[in-house]
């Protein structure tokens, strides 16, 4: 009986302590200071023309994005590479969207403890005009619950916590921002021009013919040509072509992405895929020699960029003619 009585008392104490703990969260005075605001005012979005992202402090890895002719790019020593426009807009949307932020502290000691010191915090700087900082946001460590993060404006003492919408961006390398599509979905090369482009969308239906030269000395080139509602291989018209396979392959070509950019132009062309469109234009992928990591550099017609393609994407794009034949 004494044991049962002690157990009951212990259970009651545990319940009371748990209740006090829960109520301390509900009625915590600091939690009542939470307010809704955005770090970046929406009226500044059109002014933003440069974003600097620091992984950790000003001495950490730095990624720069800037707006060029209303198009976001990633500058490098070689040239300006295209950025994923949607990804940049997502970052700006996260910065300009109102959220509930709770005031946590304002002391120097709290800054260091929460990872918000000037030299250790991750950082996102948005600039506009002549380098004018529209936002300089410091991002510290995660909060105790592991769902939020501590935040502070540079030059301000107030520390807030809120939903972590930012370390996704500060923790990524520069390749995260590259638009590595070989055929950007909103462009088609202008006929007879090396610079101009027509706004359009490349689709499987717009492709009338594909000329394929496989890498390797013993590989024979072949052509896939649209014929009525199907496809033929000229010179082998008796072959029964699987249209579903052809169109799936064309879709993989049009949607292909490289692994990275490089400034090493292929010294020789080892393989190529040329697509002919219904408006009389054409675009070609040309690949060079395989390196020790089984990757190849590639160039695309009317583009100044050189891409790095992995062995996996090369095998996916460069199919031999037997792949397109019906098997039954």
3D structure, described in words:
The chain has 328 residues and is α+β, with helices and mostly antiparallel strands. The protein folds into two domains: 32-176, Immunoglobulin-like, CATH 2.60.40; 187-324, Immunoglobulin-like, CATH 2.60.40. The protein contains six helices and 20 strands. The chain has helices spanning 2-26, 85-96, 108-113, 167-170, 243-254, 311-317, and strands at 35-37, 48-54, 62-68, 71-75, 80-82, 99-105, 122-128, 132-142, 148-153, 159-163, 187-189, 197-199, 207-213, 222-227, 230-232, 260-262, 271-277, 282-287, 296-300, 306-309. A ten-stranded antiparallel beta sheet has the order 1-6-10-9-8-7-2-3-4-5. The chain is elongated, with a radius of gyration of 28 Å. The model is unreliable at 16-32 and 187-200 (pLDDT under 50).
Topology (SSEs and partners):
Elements lengths: L1 H25 L8 E3 L10 E7 L7 E7 L2 E5 L4 E3 L2 H12 L2 E7 L2 H6 L8 E7 L3 E11 L5 E6 L5 E5 L3 H4 L16 E3 L7 E3 L7 E7 L8 E6 L2 E3 L10 H12 L5 E3 L8 E7 L4 E6 L8 E5 L5 E4 L1 H7 L11
Antiparallel strand pairs: 1-6, 2-3, 2-7, 3-4, 4-5, 6-10, 7-8, 8-9, 9-10, 11-12, 13-14, 13-17, 14-15, 16-20, 17-18, 18-19, 19-20
